[in-house]
């Protein structure tokens, strides 16, 4: 049987679901997801913290723009965010990076404060404040811990409420012209607009469709979870990150999670943590804190998929009518999703660029695929 739609979306992660919720207001949306549930890959493996200590200027503008959505979600969404401080730390070598990050964060946020050792201990008593460890810190008191389940389910509900469909267990295995998609299950789907929101697989989906790939790179990131000392109640601790990409740590249901902020190239797939990356995470926790990772209770890895300039991509493929890219969300796909979905909606419909996006310093040329080296020849 063939199912027809105005917009056919491949990928049930945050990218596909968020743009689906917007496009469903303009026509029939059908979203197909290979796995048996949405959010199985990167979107379900994120630590879902929104902060300004990641990405370049465009990503920070997308992050800032998206905050309003998280703090005052539209109808159909449960609460999406809890305010939680983001504490950035530096050793001597990281000091210039900390100063620069503080300057950048202040440009986007008010609640930013430089901290001495005593004030920093108020947020995280386990910091190792020493000449060879933490020598400086600042806090952004209004970081946001996002609820990934509420976010993904809210978008899925919005699609369905507008008459759209989210079909799981439907892996696209062949793509014909304008756009006829064959699923592994035997079902076919047709739409004049095909949105490629396939995360780490997005280039492979393009190749299946005979469209030039963007040159996306999936990079693996590792998380470990461990028990804090029995006498420490960590539930209100902040998100703690070194000023350069070296280590981060955050409370997780009474335990602590940590990452070595690794970026190892990997193939699209069910990413698994590597023993060495887990050991590096544990070591780096002990470098910057008084904590010792005695037993890892839980671990996972996921893929963060980047375009060459590390800015997410939305827009029609220059070489294929009706083939729309929404890819390269890297390590910020959740915290930028509301802005990227609004951008993708405007570009997919060929609508005027929203004033609010322009006021936030965002222009289509930053986001469209044409900017990438894949199209420079
Ligand atoms: C450890 C870790 C920590 C992170 N922390 C944060 C954070 O704190 N804040 C933040 O904003 N971001 C964070 N991220 C990044 C964030 O998770 C990603 O940017 C985001 O999830 C990407 O979403 P996506 O929808 O593009 O990809 P995905 O969630 O991977 O979705 C793509 C979907 O496409 C489906 N698909 C692929 N091929 C096909 C096909 N042929 N047919 C049908 N379906 C197909 C896949 O099954 C998959 O479900 C983190 C990522 C990791 C791994």
- Output the structural class: alpha/beta
Let me know the largest β-sheet: 9 strands, mixed
**CATH topology descriptor of the largest domain:** FAD/NAD(P)-binding domain
Q: What number of structural domains do the residues give?
A: 2
Relative helix content: 25-40%
Strand content: 25-35%
Pfam family, one: DAO
Keywords: Oxidoreductase
GO molecular function, one term: oxidoreductase activity
Protein name: FAD-dependent oxidoreductase
What does this structure look like?
With 377 residues, the protein is of the alpha/beta class. The chain has two domains: 2-46 and 148-215 and 309-375, FAD/NAD(P)-binding domain (3-Layer(bba) Sandwich); 85-142 and 217-306, D-Amino Acid Oxidase, subunit A, domain 2 (D-Amino Acid Oxidase, Chain A, domain 2). It is 27% helix and 26% strand. The protein has ten helices and 22 strands. The protein has helices at residues 14-23, 57-71, 95-108, 117-123, 148-161, 202-208, 275-288, 337-349, 355-359, 364-367; strands at 2-4, 7-10, 29-32, 49-50, 81-83, 86-90, 112-115, 136-140, 144-146, 165-167, 172-176, 180-183, 188-190, 193-196, 217-226, 239-242, 248-252, 255-259, 264-265, 296-306, 313-316, 323-327. Strands 6, 7, 8, 15, 16, 17, 18, 19 and 20 form a nine-stranded mixed beta sheet that branches. A six-stranded mixed beta sheet has the order 10-3-2-14-22-21, sandwiched between helices. A hairpin with a 6-residue loop joins strand 21 (313-316) and strand 22. It is globular, with a radius of gyration of 21 Å. The chain starts with a strand and ends in a 10-residue tail after the last helix. Flavin-adenine dinucleotide binds next to helix 1, strand 15 and strand 20.
């Amino acid at each position: 049987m063939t199912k027809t739609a105005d917009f056919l979306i491949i990928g049930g992660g945050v990218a596909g679901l968020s743009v689906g919720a917007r496009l469903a207001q303009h026509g029939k949306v059908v979203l197909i997801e290979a796995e048996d549930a949405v959010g199985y890959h990167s979107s379900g493996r994120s630590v879902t913290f929104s902060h300004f200590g990641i990405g370049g200027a465009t990503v920070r503008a997308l992050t800032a723009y998206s905050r309003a959505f998280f703090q005052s979600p539209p109808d159909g969404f449960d609460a999406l965010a809890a305010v939680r401080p983001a504490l950035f730390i530096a050793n001597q070598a990281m000091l210039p990076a900390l100063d620069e990050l503080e300057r950048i964060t202040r440009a986007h946020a008010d609640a930013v404060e430089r901290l001495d050792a005593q004030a920093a201990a108020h947020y995280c008593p386990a910091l190792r404040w020493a000449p060879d460890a933490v020598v400086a810190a600042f806090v952004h008191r209004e970081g946001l811990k996002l609820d990934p389940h509420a976010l993904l389910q809210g978008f899925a509900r919005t699609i369905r409420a507008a008459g759209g469909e989210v079909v799981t267990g439907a892996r696209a295995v062949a793509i014909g012209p304008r756009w006829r998609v064959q699923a592994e299950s035997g079902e076919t789907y047709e739409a004049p607009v095909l949105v490629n929101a396939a995360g780490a697989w997005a280039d492979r989906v393009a190749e299946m469709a005979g469209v030039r790939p963007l040159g996306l790179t999936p990079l693996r990131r590792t998380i470990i979870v461990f028990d804090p000392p029995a006498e420490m109640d960590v539930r209100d601790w902040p998100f703690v990150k070194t000023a350069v990409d070296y280590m981060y740590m955050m409370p997780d249901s009474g335990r602590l999670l940590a990452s070595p902020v690794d970026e190892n190239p990997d193939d699209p797939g069910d990413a698994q943590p590597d023993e060495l990356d887990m050991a590096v995470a544990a070591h780096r926790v002990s470098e910057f804190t008084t904590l010792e990772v005695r037993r890892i209770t839980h671990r996972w890895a996921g893929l963060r998929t980047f375009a060459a300039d590390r800015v997410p991509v939305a827009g029609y493929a220059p070489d294929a009518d009706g083939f729309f890219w929404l890819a390269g969300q890297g390590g910020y796909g959740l915290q930028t999703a509301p802005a990227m979905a609004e951008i993708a909606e405007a570009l997919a419909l060929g609508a005027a660029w929203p004033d609010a996006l322009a006021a936030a310093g965002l222009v289509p040329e930053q986001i469209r695929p044409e900017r990438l080296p894949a199209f420079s020849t």
